[in-house]
Amino acid sequence: MLSGGAAHAKTRLDDAVAQQDLEQLRSQLPNPSASCWLSLVYEKRGDLPRAGLHLENCNEAQVAADVRDELARAVRELRKTLRDSELSEVYVQTQPAGLVAEIDALPGEHFTTPATVWVPAGHHEVHAISEGIAFTTSITTKPHSRALILLEAAKPKTASTRTGVVEFGEEGDVGDKQDGPPPDVKHGTMLPKKYIDGGTTAGAEEIADPLAVHERRSVPLHPPALRTGLRVGGGTFGHAGGSRIAPSVAMILKIAAPWEPIGARRPIELGVRLDWSRRGGDDAKFEAIGFQAEVDRIVAATDSAWIAAGLALRGDARTAAMIGTMPVRSFGLGGCASIELVVRDLPIVFGVRYEQGITELADGLREHAVLLEAGVDLRQFHDRR
Length: 385
Prior knowledge:
The chain is of the alpha+beta class. It folds into 3 domains: 4-82, no CATH class; 88-154 and 191-195, Sandwich (Immunoglobulin-like); 226-381, Porin, CATH 2.40.160. Helices cover 16% and strands 42% of the residues. The protein has helices at 4-19, 22-27, 32-44, 48-55, 65-84; strands spanning 88-95, 100-103, 111-112, 115-119, 122-130, 133-141, 146-152, 226-239, 242-256, 268-281, 284-301, 305-318, 322-323, 326-327, 331-343, 348-357, 368-381. β2 (100-103) and β3 form a beta hairpin. α3 (32-44) packs across α5 and α4 (48-55) crosses α5. It starts with a helix and ends with a strand.
């Protein structure tokens, strides 16, 4: 339930949205403040595709200060609503950039490329105009999917001119005389092959975006709502008395947090990890079963991969062992910092971890470890991104 202050702020914002005049706001475009209000007005009317289109150019900092915080909160909720809906997220790029385009799913709406549009699943056509020439391509999307569509304007070829000299003989002879019309000369089309079949791009349903970072995203690329996986690695385990290189194996489960940090557009993952490792130093070795709870922050993301930095609290259960004359304690508590690179489509994972004991491994000794890992996500659930 909302607190009294939050409920009052939401009521005030709802009243402000209801008072906005749609046509007056559209006449103010591309003003970032007008885009914010338009996105909320269309959301209130149940038109999520248009709400998503105008959200692209929204800048909450341009809104009046008395409703800025409430509007920023509503904009974050709208972004989550779009991700949780069955709409498809389509990134439209043109060559050259900066063209005016439209998609048939949003009649009457125009946008400047590059841009992100949210459309229902199905077949769609995108049109753009370059130097007065219209060109088009098509795409078929599925629910909860992301796709990139590229329109490339054909560049007409210009005829080249040459300077030459014709010499006439004394009798005005210009060569062999030929009666009748000149022979037919066949010229190939000047259009690229991909525009010959009705102006559509063959195979343009979904064009892969290999590791390219686009400057366009106002909505971040989120990880799956839930994923499970395996990790295999190894590294250096040690303490003040010595160290050893040993293997580790782990199982993970991570879920995307249902909230985002205030003032940020990078999502959070919450996770648990169960692992086995062989530990100890030069003078002892033992097995350890570890369990940890962690929080990861997405610090960078593209269509192909994302990088997450995490902090965790972990506990270890250890087999019996001795370090010199001191027994290894059966249980321990520690902390962990990690960086993980996740490749979306494979999906393969690479990670680096640093673990530091909080409680003592044995009298006067605390454990530490540096691990390199690789693994795979066995399942990714995208239905509630």
